[in-house]
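Justification of computing resources. Each target in the renewal requires a structure prediction run like the one illustrated here; the chain below, 171 residues long, is used simply to show the kind of job we budget for.
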Amino acid sequence: MSRADNLGFSRVECLVTEVPGPDGASAPFQLHGSSSAGDFTIWLTLGDTAFPGAGWHDFPPVILAWWAGEVAELLRGDRRCAQLRFMEGPYFAEVRDGPRCEANVRLVRQLRTGEVVLGEGYVPAEEIGREIHRAGTAVLAATNAHDNDDARVLRASLDRLAAVLGERGRR
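Resulting structure tokens:
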């Protein structure tokens, strides 16, 4: 049995409530992922845009730890912008915390000559944090038997994110 078979990260979908942006438009934000026989996929959708693409091959335990840390710092006010980077390829989602906790989300492909925005929408930063936490928790549920460095880092990142979400929820 491969490590991927033990992860059990099978099609985690996290739908965030649609929230109107400044122009009245709204975009659902979803995380998708799967694992089988050592093959990991993770991608997100914002509105109708699959990013970086449906079935994107990457490593969810590592990038979800990165994303949890970035969003925790954003929600604490330690940074103005969180970059949710993928390991494979020059792609990231940029999240900004805005008025009334709305985030401006941009899906970006980084090139040598600059950046290309492939999609954008508005989703509350706290909701993005909660969905990252749910997806990371699903990954950890299957990695508990494999207490490796990736699992420990993800667990610590999710704990920090949960603490920040809890603090903001009490305000």
